[in-house]
Design goal:
about 500 residues; alpha+beta; D-tyrosyl-trna(Tyr) Deacylase, Chain: A; 2 domains; six-stranded mixed sheet; six-stranded antiparallel sheet
Length: about 500
């Protein structure tokens, strides 16, 4: 998960509402990690560069895990240049997405797509929309489905049934914090997903002393919501903070806090209530724009009949595109859908919960790639849960395996590039790392991470993982230390 802005935005529980180091260890001392004896010059230089960063008083109470290796090939094994607690467990935050996307690419293939279908049942006036968890589906795709039905002469629908059964299990991971489940970045994951199961809005400062204006990105999606606005616009010298959230059972949005007069609007998002019903309600509205009337809507738990005929369908972009959104934008919903899509490949009896099945398939797939199954314990696919544990070694093993894979170009292209794209677009600008460091960032409170690749002209690329846990420092401060370690890698001698 990544913050949408440097302002302080949180969800806090109020009366039934949820409102939106110390000691440097040498590489040789790292337990079980190969000694960098063949590159002692490189190891010494990295220790001299990284040691002072970790020993700053700011980070002395923090836990660091770092592993830096040369990229392995089919003919040349990797060489460890630096290791610090590389085999120990850390909360990975969104670096967990590296494991999810690697397994998805390996198991599902880059051409994998997710299909949403509309079937006509035996009763010709009944339509059944079957979702399979397409996280990219928006109003535009529903419009296309409606046009397909209209082109076939469908004008009257007695019942529009929603089939939300493809993914089994909880829509919101029980390991997530309660406030995360109310925010747009923690939207529920079901089979009928529309507009990422979130409603976006902007909070806009007004004249001094006036409440912030609440502007919905999609006014139609905002229908039925009631706003309790206790926010205000304050002077330029005052602090900024926001509390944004919603009622657990009712469409009530509660806004409080303050933004400075003249400051930029603040984008936020809240998770929708009852996503499958929201999907059906919006589809009914879009069908009406194509002169197709729907008398009744509802969800069905019955199985699809062999005699049901597909009358319309829309497919997601291929996995190669879904991976870019997942890793570059650190999209939690996309990651959770990919995990559940892995779960749908489970062939053993009693696969049950699709998310749990996905974790099992992920482990089997990554083990086949050479990733130590004891190097991580995941409870979700996005990294939002604080119950996730991953070692830097497991992340580097995953990156090394994907770098040797036939899918290496696809996987590398899904990562953010320093100073250029994704969550790294504003980091490493005008430094030697710009354009040559590609990686996945991660952040939850007290945790920051960066793992990926560093390309070097006419030399072996570097594969690395940097994680810090148990810190009381803000995200920006942690990033400065991580970026300093990244820049240290760019200053290695050519023979390293």
């Amino acid at each position: 998960m990544h913050p949408r802005s440097p302002r302080h935005i949180k969800l806090i529980p109020i009366a039934g509402l949820f409102l939106l180091s110390g000691l440097l260890l040498s590489a040789k001392a790292a337990i079980g990690v190969p000694s960098p004896a063949k590159n002692s010059v490189c190891a010494v230089q990295l220790e001299q560069a990284i040691g002072p960063i970790l020993s700053q008083p700011t980070y002395q109470r923090s836990r660091w895990g770092i592993l830096i290796q040369t990229a392995s090939t089919t003919t040349s094994p990797s060489v460890t240049l630096y290791a610090h607690d590389a085999q120990r467990y850390f909360i990975p935050a969104s670096n967990a997405k590296l494991l999810t996307t690697a397994a998805a690419l390996q198991k599902l293939g880059p051409a994998f797509r997710i299909r949403t279908s509309v079937y006509q049942t035996n009763a010709s006036s009944v339509l059944r929309v079957v979702g399979r968890g397409d996280p990219s589906l928006t109003d535009a795709e529903l419009k296309t489905l409606a046009q397909q039905l209209s082109a076939q002469g469908i004008r009257q629908v007695a019942q529009l049934l929603g089939d939300d059964q493809y993914f089994q299990g909880e829509a919101t991971n029980p390991g997530w914090d309660w406030e995360d489940g109310q925010a747009g970045y923690g939207a529920p994951v079901n089979s009928l997903i529309l507009n990422q199961n979130a409603i976006g809005l902007q909070l806009i400062p007004q004249s001094l002393g006036q409440p912030l204006q609440v502007a919905w990105e999609n006014p139609v999606a905002a229908a039925g919501w009631r706003i309790e606005n206790r926010s205000r616009t304050v002077a330029t010298s005052d602090p900024e903070f926001l509390n944004v959230g919603r009622d657990l059972g009712q469409p009530i949005l509660k806004v409080s806090g303050q933004l400075r007069v003249g400051s930029d609007p603040e984008p936020v998002a809240v998770a929708v209530l009852n996503p499958a019903q929201t999907f059906l309600r919006r589809f009914q509205q879009i069908l009406a724009t194509e002169q197709i009337t729907v008398a009744q809507t509802g969800l069905t738990s019955q199985s699809l009949s062999p005699t049901d005929v597909e009358r319309g369908a829309i497919v997601s972009p291929p996995l190669v595109t879904l991976l870019i959104e997942t890793n570059q934008q650190s999209n939690n919903l996309y990651a959770e859908v990919l995990l559940r899509s892995l779960g749908k490949t489970c062939t053993r009896s009693g696969c049950g919960d699709t998310s749990e099945a996905g974790l099992a398939v992920m482990k089997t797939t990554l083990t086949g790639l050479g990733v130590d199954p004891k190097g991580y314990v995941l409870t979700d696919g996005s990294g939002l849960s604080r119950r996730n544990l991953v070692s830097p070694e497991a992340l580097v093993q995953t990156l090394q395996a994907m770098n040797r894979s036939p899918y290496a170009p696809v996987f590398r292209a899904s990562l953010s590039v320093a100073g250029t794209s994704g969550t790294l677009r504003n980091r490493f600008k005008n430094t030697p790392a710009q354009g040559v460091l590609a990686g996945k960032t991660g952040f939850v409170s007290g945790v920051a991470a960066l793992s990926g690749y560093l390309d070097r002209p006419r030399q072996s690329s570097l594969v690395f993982s940097i994680i810090v846990n148990q810190s009381d420092q803000p995200y920006g401060t942690l990033n400065q230390a991580i970026d300093a370690i990244g820049l240290a890698m760019t200053r290695l001698p050519k023979k390293c």
